[in-house]
Amino acid sequence: MSGGDSTTALVLEGELSIRTAAQVHDQLQQAWAEGQHILDLSRVEAADSAGIQLLVAADKTLMAEGRRLQISGASAPVKDLLALYGLTPRFLAAAA
Question: Looking at residues 28-43, what average pLDDT do you find?
Fold first, then answer.
């Protein structure tokens, strides 16, 4: 994870999947507690629907606090899944 202010991104690497969901959830909770809400997913090599569900849940949590999840970069697997589920405008519109 990158630094602790809200302008730095939490960098996720490897998988964003059912296998890593609990670990990523914990990383996200720590980041939100530190005021971060930007994710860099450019180093994610594999993703599945559980990973996308985690992003949606994180965004809903932040929205309840008056913030939004921002993705500063997304790998091809992440972009493909976001497109498949119709979530590209929700997560990547600002990064495009």
Answer: 91
